[in-house]
Each structure stands twice: as structure tokens, then as C-alpha cells.
Fold this protein.
Amino acid sequence: MAPSPAAAMPLAAEPDEVVVEVEEEEERGVKGGGGVAGLDEVEGLVVGSYCHDVLLRGGRVVGETLGGAAAFVSNVLDAASPARASLAVVSKVGHDFAYATAAAPARHPPVLCASPTTSFHARFSDDAASAHAPDRQLRRVHACDPIYPADLPDRRFAYGLAVGVAGEVLPETLERMIRLCRAVLVDAQALIRAFDGEAKGGGAVRHVALEATPYARLLPRVAFLKASSEEAPYVGVETARRRCCVIVTEGRDGCRLYWDGGEARVAPFPAVQVDPTGAGDSFLAGFASGLLWGLSATDAALLGNFFGAAAVSQVGVPTFDPKMLQAVKQILEKAVKRPCTHINGNTFTFQRSSIHDELHKSLQEAAMLVCEQKQANSPATDNGDVCSINELTSLPS
Ligand SMILES: Nc1ncnc2c1ncn2[C@@H]1O[C@H](COP(=O)(O)OP(=O)(O)O)[C@@H](O)[C@H]1O
Ligand SMILES: O=P([O-])([O-])O[C@@H]1[C@@H](O)[C@H](O)[C@@H](O)[C@H](O)[C@@H]1O
């Protein structure tokens, strides 16, 4: 389908509804509010729980790391958003949570629950992962409590990210996010995961059709829905794109955007993949940062691809080289005249802009810094490749 000359869409919350709600909340004495458009400070809301990830290969544990989309997402948003953007994270863990002092949870502490921390076993196959075949099989071993609407802060946000991993973002919680946030971005994995019998070894993660879930009716009030190519058939791209902009990530091939009336392919960045975990999460956060910087959706997806590639080059939640981050921010400052125009305005634009190719080229240079940093920090193996999840035996948190 050829891109339409101009495309824009309404934001998640209809302005009238926001005004009415703000007025109602002001009457009730709720703190915050004050309208969203024209905010000096742009605050985001991330909803989804941190978790424990156990990485297995050939029946052997090769690593244990902090996981959960909220950890990857807040890591990228904290690193890549414009200076005036801040973040609130709503996440739940148990008393067994092992990563309270890791960077993301230390900056955005989770709520402690009586139930254990959500935990996944990710079983990596011995075959070389292709761009489209599932590269890991997930089992949910423990599930922490769901996140309820009442767990969300009672104030307005410029944007929200619904990024559950174990079904913790309930339909009513997503609905509350839509009411609180000017624009909501959703990871399909928060909506379409089901868990087979939680017998010994945990429940295998499978997918259900989005249309058959209570989330489907909320799609017209969602701004962006991101799905991996494995999840896309369950989302039903052709139906969903009429309700919101759908982004399908395609691993090392980059991603595609589908909106009502157009679509675009966005090229990837080079990466030396050692662990694919968190690529989709980091993509979504990079994409949201791009919107915060004022990029069109197709241009913002470049930043998504950039951080997706950065995520696969490290095990667990990545640490970014400050030099690389500084380079990225300089590129964005140069490319964009007015940060936050899109997420904070009345409509999104989707089209590839005239700066797209130049932005890709500049970010490619910054991506090379990630590859160089990776290569400098990792012991080379016999075939010249760097250490990957194949070789890892014990991983730092
Ligand atoms: N091997 C890779 N090389 C470069 N970029 C990658 C690679 N794997 C993933 N990415 C980036 O991360 C994004 C998300 O990865 P993907 O594997 O599609 O998601 P998920 O982690 O949800 O399965 C991709 O769209 C791409 O931008
Ligand atoms: O790899 P990705 O699809 O972006 O996201 C992953 C989830 O699918 C997984 O359930 C969780 O345990 C990981 O920590 C990570 O959040």
C-alpha cells in the first residue's frame, strides 16, 4: 500500500473526555491534572512488572538476569528522552526480588507484594535464530499480583506505556491508563499472552487472538500497538491498523509500521547479537523517545530499531556507553527543532520525513560505537565472534 500524503490520528484520550475528567478530579481534590497540552514537564507512565529471567540452553542454566519489559523500557526512556521528560513506573515484585539495587528498579522502585516475583524460564534453541523463527521458548514460572487501576498514580501523564509480560496489566488497568495518559503505547505481549497449566516447570507462554480478549475494544483509544512478527498474526494487523497504528518488529530486519491509509518499512542497525531478550521492549521505548523528541512515527521507529539493536548486543538490561548516548542526543538535537511536539500535540504524523535518511546515517555511526564497545569489552572466540548466549555460563545481574 502506498503511503498516503498526509496521515494523522486522534490521541488516545479524546480532549473533551480529558477536560471533563480533569474537572471532575479537581472537584474531588485530586492532586495533579492541570491539562496536558503544552506541558513544560513531560511525564510518562510505564505499567508492567519487573521479573526474574532464567536463561537456559540445552537444559542448563546459562544465566540469571533482571527482566520484565518495564526494566528494559525505563532503561531506554531514562537514557534517551529529552531532558525535560520524566517517568513514573508502576511495577510489582515479591520479597524474593533479587535486583532491587539494579539501575532501573533503584531509580523506579517496585511495589512489594506477598506473592513471589514474576519469573520466566527462557529456553534458547541450539539452531541459529532466523529473523522470523522464535529464538526462545518462554515459560512463566511464577506470577506476581496483577496491577490494578487503583495502583496507578492519580495524576495526568503526557504518555503511557502498557508493557506487561505475565498478564499483569488488566483490561481495567489499561482503560485507566487511557484515561490518565494523553497517548498510550501498548506492547501486544501485555494483551495476548496466555499461560498453559502452571504444572511443574511453569506454564508455557502461548498467544491468543487479540480480538477474543477484553482489550480489543480499547484499541481505538490506543495510539500505537507494537507486536513482534511472531505475535503479529494474533494481533490481526489488517483489522488493528484501522483502529491504531501497528508496528511489527522483524528482528534483525528492522520493523514495519501500518496505519490506516499507509505503511512504511524502517531499516535496522548493525548489531552483534548475544541475547535477544528485551529487544522488543527496548524498541518500544526507543520509539516512544523518538516521539518525545518530536519525530514522526516512521522516523521515531529509527530510534526504536537503534535501541533494539543495542539491547541484543548485551545480556539482560543493557548498560549504555555515555559517549554513545551523548552522540545520539546531539544527532536528535540537530535533527529536531522542537522536542515533544508529537506526543504532546493533538495529532501524530506517520510519514517518513525529509530527515529520515540523514538520521539513519547518523544513528548508524552511533550504532557502530555500540558494536565497537561490545567488541572491546568481550573476549573473542575462535571464530572471531564475540561471546554469545551460547557460551555464557554465569551472568552478572
Ligand atoms: N539481531 C539484530 N540486529 C539488529 N537489530 C535487531 C536484532 N534483533 C532485534 N533487533 C531490533 O530490535 C527490534 C525488536 O526485535 P524483535 O526480535 O523483533 O522483538 P522481540 O524481542 O519482541 O521478539 C527489531 O525491530 C530490531 O529493530
Ligand atoms: O524480549 P522481549 O520480547 O522484548 O521482552 C521479554 C519478555 O518477552 C519476557 O517475558 C521477559 O521475561 C523479558 O525480560 C523481556 O521483557
Summary: The first helix runs from residue 15 to 27. Residues 40-377 form a domain with the UDP-N-acetylmuramoyl-L-alanine:D-glutamate ligase fold (CATH 3.40.1190.20).
